[in-house]
Amino acid sequence: MADKGKMDQAKGKAKEAVGKVTGDDRMKTEGKMDQAKGKAKEAMTEAEKRARGVQDSLRDKHDRI
Questions:
Q1: Confidence band, pLDDT 50/70/90 cuts, at residue 11
Q2: Where are the alpha helices (DSSP H) in the chain?
Q3: 46: Cβ–Cβ under 8 A, 6 or more apart, which residues?
Q4: By C-alpha distance, which of 30, 36, 29 is closest to 5?
Q5: Measured between alpha carbons, how far is 30 from 46 in angstroms, rounded to an integer?
Q6: What CA–CA distance (Å, rounded) separates 56 from 33?
Q7: How far is CA 15 from CA 8, 39, 51, in A?
Q8: Are 37 and 4 contacting, i.e. CB atoms less than 8 angstroms apart?
Q9: Is the pLDDT confidence value at 1 over 60?
Q10: Residues 16-56 pLDDT 10s
Q11: I want to staple 34 with a disulfide (CB 3.0 to 4.6 A). Which of 12, 46, 54, 63 is the partner?
Q12: What pLDDT score does 60 carry?
């Protein structure tokens, strides 16, 4: 999913650049939205990884008791 987030960000940057060059405000806005969506996906993936890490460490701690 992190790769998908990076793809959305790259797509968004490209759209924003095209929008700036052509003067298309809608395209610029779509590009910014795609970038935000990509960043959100990356943040979600990172939070999931951290949650799994906490869960695993708690499980390991429980197993040692």
A1: very high
A2: 2-22, 25-64
A3: 2
A4: 36
A5: 24
A6: 35
A7: 10, 16, 33
A8: no
A9: no
A10: 999 999 999 999 999 999 999 999 999 999 999 899 888 87
A11: 12
A12: 72
The span from the CA of 41 to the CA of 48, in Å, is 11
Alpha carbon distance 47, 65 (integer Å): 27
pLDDT of the residue at 9? 96
Distances (CA, A) of 23 to 29, 45, 51: 11, 34, 43
Q: What are phi and psi of 31, to 5 degrees?
A: -65, -45
The burial class, CB within 10 Å (0-12 / 13-18 / 19+), for 38 is buried
